[in-house]
Amino acid sequence: MINKLNIEKFYDYFDSIANLLYSNYKLGYLEGMNEAFNFLLDDEFEGEYSLEDMAILKETKQSINDVAFEREEIRKGVQLGLLKGYKHQYSSNELLTPDTIGIFIGYLIEKLYKDEDLKTIIDPLMGTGNLVFTILNHLNKKTKIFGLDNDLLKCKISRNVSDLLEYDNEMFYQDTLTYFDQGFDLVVTDLPVSEDDNEYFPYKVINHHLDSLKDGKYLFAIIENDFFEKKDSKIFKEEIDKKAYIFGLIKLSESLFKNNPKSILILRKFGESIQKPVNFLLIDLPSFNDLDNLDKTISQIDLWFEKREAK
């Protein structure tokens, strides 16, 4: 059971440290958050601080030493800090995938992997990890997280948060298109809004990381609604058709987004005995606040999966 007071305690811990490090050393808020995580995990900092400030930092840590936090309490506390930090550093909160999307994707993954192991998951555009952490916190699976990002600070935060949540993990600070590995059980990512007229970056990410999947496994990508209308979409479809088929396409409620509404694309990689279904999962998801219509839609999805399993 999530305790809101524990969320506040965890937030207050790193917020106090981040504010002190900003006031006395002009360290950015997100960097200060990460230092608070370093101190909590390893009892050390990346930077050097005065003896007086170290005494304050140790006292701040002691205030939560005896609290047994649930995973969601930590994640939600971190999320509050990221919202504050992004507002100052990146000028946008759209870098954080909404919780409801992660929870919904977790529900779909549970349907697909309910009788299977989910030993590895990779997010090729990990950021600070909120999407993956939200998904895994709502699944009963023992899973190792692999993450990629070309922003060093985000890599550090996602690694530390993953450690705080006690998920086995490997985070890589590198360009996602330079990473080559195979044998993952699941790829999941929130693709950025891309305005490059020459090459559409999300196409490249999906095409590249489909090769990372085991045969018969799934890729979940949160995409722009005009994803299939971009330049070179025909070439992209031809490339993807060699490796996978569209398993599902779920249009998300526009109420979730200030700008650039999105959908969830699900691809399944080809493999032995993998048959392409006659109908793929095509859903127009209502607002998560519209509980009556949402319940009806979830029932439709449940029925679709029941029919699929009965074949």
Structural class call reads alpha/beta
CATH architecture of the largest domain: 3-Layer(aba) Sandwich
Uncertain segments = none
Average the pLDDT over all residues and give the rounded result: 93
| CATH superfamily placement of the largest domain | Vaccinia Virus protein VP39
Which sequence of SSEs, written as H and E, runs from N to C? HHHHHEHEHEEHEHEEEH
Name of the top-level CATH class of the largest domain: Alpha Beta
Topology, number of strands: 8
The DSSP helix count reads 10
CATH topology of the largest domain: Rossmann fold
Strand order of the largest sheet: 3-2-1-4-5-7-6-8
What does this structure look like?
With 311 residues, the protein is an alpha/beta fold. The chain has 2 domains: 4-89, DNA polymerase, domain 1 (Orthogonal Bundle), CATH 1.10.150; 99-310, Rossmann fold (3-Layer(aba) Sandwich), CATH 3.40.50. It is built from 10 helices and 8 strands. The chain has helices at residues 4-25, 29-42, 51-62, 71-89, 99-113, 130-137, 152-164, 201-210, 233-241, 291-310; strands at 120-123, 144-149, 169-173, 184-190, 213-224, 244-251, 262-269, 281-284. Strands 3-2-1-4-5-7-6-8 form an 8-stranded mixed β-sheet, with helices on both faces. Helix 1 crosses helix 2 (29-42), helix 2 (29-42) packs parallel to helix 7 (152-164) and helix 4 (71-89) runs antiparallel to helix 6 (130-137). The longest helix has 22 residues, at 4-25. It is globular. The mean pLDDT is 93.
